[in-house]
Amino acid sequence: MEHCAALILAAGKGTRMKSDLAKVLHPLAGRPMIHHVLDAAEEAGLAPAILVIGHQAEEVKTKLVGREVRFALQAEQLGTGHAVMMAREELATLSGEVLVLSGDVPLIRSKTLRELVDYHRSRDAAATVLSAVLDDPGGYGRILRDENGDLAAIREHRDASEEERATREINSGIYVFALADLLEGLEFLSDENEQGEYYLTDTLEILRRRGRRVSALICEDAEEIGGINDIEQLAAAERALAERSA
Predict the structure, then answer these.
(1) Cα–Cα distance between 33 and 107 in angstroms, integer?
(2) Exposure winner among 6, 23, 156, 177, fewest CB in 10 A?
(3) What does the alpha-carbon distance between residue 179 and residue 92 come to, in Å, rounded to a whole number?
């Protein structure tokens, strides 16, 4: 795949895992979780892979010795937008596109990542979100589309109206950006919100306001986009991987 980098957000502590271990280092099918995400990115032809690390940064680096990966440090975790900002120096040396994904989504398939990049290019978009349709979308940001089927907004669950909450299409937190558009969008990010954090989703609205197209592609298998936040979800991912290899 030509000129599409992977930016993997992997700085979190993962408090709900009830362990001191950095979330992305929790073992899954015999290897730290982060390896599964890197495998998918590599198999999809994404390069280079840039990993944003924070909690136990040195341990994460140690577990990835021998892999083709660059690192950016997010010493203080101030949101997903802030994580991407910490990689700006690395990104500024590249051209083309960047696919942003999380280090705690180990079931994502390389095929899905390739399809996302192809769709993004076919729509000539500044950014494209990978979405999924869930039976119970509670808690997730909802995808709201315009009359052309493009992304109109991502409405967080707590901010959504009753009508918007009835929407079952949700944001997976996986995105492709045209690099120049992403870097431009980051310039306008603000932390003026309840959490005092920089949200990557805000860049989508910024790009739309600047007349750029933002699109969304539905992932056919919603299981792929499930994030690992606790031990139960880790065990479920373990079972899912075992079923795949069987």
Answers:
(1) 10
(2) 156
(3) 8
Name the residues annotated as catalytic.
Answer: 16
Residue identified by tokens 């431009």 is: 184
Closest CA to 130 of 160, 100, 159: 100
Question: Burial code of 169-202, b = ≥16 C-beta within 10 A, e = fewer?
Answer: bbbbbbbbbbbebbbbbbeebeeeeeeeebbbbb
Please tell me the distance from the alpha carbon of residue 199 to that of residue 203, in angstroms, as a whole number: 8
Residues 6 or more apart whose CB falls under 8 angstroms from that of 162 comprise none
What pTM was estimated for this model as a whole?
Answer: 0.96
Before 48, cis peptide (omega within 30)? yes
Residue 89 is encoded by which pair of tokens? 């120096």
Ramachandran sector of residue 238 (left: φ over 0; alpha: ψ -120 to 50; beta: rest)? alpha
Give the tens place of pLDDT for each residue, 69-126. Answer: 999 999 999 999 999 999 999 999 999 999 999 999 999 999 999 999 999 999 999 9
CA 79 – CA 202 distance, rounded (Å): 11
Domains and CATH numbers, the chain: 4-245 (3.90.550.10)
Instruction: Kindly report, residue by residue over 118-162, the tens digit of the pLDDT.
Output: 999 999 999 999 999 999 999 999 999 999 999 999 998 988 999
